């Protein structure tokens, strides 16, 4: 698996430090409140697990599974809900935990859905952002790392369901996704 990686972009250590920093900021923002933290599966599962351990206010959490890529490396723009939330969001302070924002299509769909369900507030934290890929005008409230316009894997992010368990984020060798 490691042999398929061309270059490590963000190390395990750098991710750990950034997640702790995001956790401190979110703990301050949500002081005195009880946010509903929503993990967007599957890509955000590792970030979610690491992030909630650094948040010091009481939270509830829920999971939502969406798919917008299939096995390709660019968003189709069609967001499919594979698993919806278990908890009603009406009147809740909602924090969406995203792995990566590229075109922004997935997130804009989710934000609209939560607003339609009358969430009290909707904030977004993403570990990675590729602003160059954006096709809709949208920004996360909290961002870990800005990445170049490259397809990355690791720390929850997959290519055709592989590489999610790498502890760092890297770029695949071109022959892996062109064959
Ligand atoms: P968007 O809708 O913003 O184009 O894409 C968002 C989703 O596409 C992310 O939640 C993630 O699942 C996937 N995605 C976007 N860029 C990458 C990438 O570089 N690598 C991987 N593995 N998934 C990505």
Write the layout of secondary structure elements.
Blueprint: E1 5-10, H1 12-29, E2 36-41, H2 45-52, E3 60-67, E4 80-83, E5 93-101, H3 105-116, E6 121-129, E7 142-146, E8 152-153, E9 169-172, H4 174-178
Parallel strand pairs: 2-3, 2-5, 5-6, 6-7
Antiparallel strand pairs: 1-9, 3-4, 8-9
Helix pairs in contact: 1-2
The structure holds guanosine-5'-monophosphate.
Guanosine-5'-monophosphate is lined by residues 43, 68-69, 75, 98-107, 151-153, 157-159.
Domain Phosphoribosyltransferase: 16-159
Main location: cytoplasm
Organism: Paenibacillus antarcticus
Question: Can you walk me through this structure?
Answer:
The strands form 2 sheets. Strands 4-3-2-5-6-7 form a 6-stranded mixed β-sheet, with helices on both faces. By secondary structure, it is of the alpha/beta class. Strand 5, helix 3 and strand 6 (121-129) form a beta-alpha-beta unit. Helix 1 packs across helix 2 (45-52). It has 4 helices and 9 strands, in the order βαβαβββαββββα. Bound molecules: guanosine-5'-monophosphate (5GP). Guanosine-5'-monophosphate is lined by residues 43, 68-69, 75, 98-107, 151-153, 157-159. Guanosine-5'-monophosphate (5GP) binds next to strand 5, helix 3 and strand 8.
């Amino acid at each position: 698996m490691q042999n398929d990686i061309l270059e490590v972009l963000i190390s395990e250590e750098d991710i750990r430090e950034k997640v702790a920093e995001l956790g401190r900021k979110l703990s301050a923002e949500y002081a005195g409140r009880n946010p509903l933290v929503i993990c967007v599966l599957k890509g955000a599962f590792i970030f979610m697990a690491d992030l909630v351990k650094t948040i010091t206010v009481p939270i509830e959490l829920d999971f939502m599974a969406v798919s917008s890529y299939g096995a390709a490396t660019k968003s189709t723009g069609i967001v499919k809900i594979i698993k919806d939330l278990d908890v009603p969001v009406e009147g809740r302070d909602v924090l969406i935990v995203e792995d990566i924002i590229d075109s922004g299509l997935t997130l804009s769909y989710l934000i609209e859905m939560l607003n339609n369900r009358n969430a009290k507030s909707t904030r977004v934290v993403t570990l990675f952002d590729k602003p160059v890929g954006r096709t809709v005008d949208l920004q996360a409230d909290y961002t870990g790392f800005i990445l170049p316009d490259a397809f990355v894997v690791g720390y929850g992010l997959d290519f055709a369901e592989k590489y999610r368990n790498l502890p760092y984020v890297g770029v695949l060798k071109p022959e892996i996704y062109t064959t």
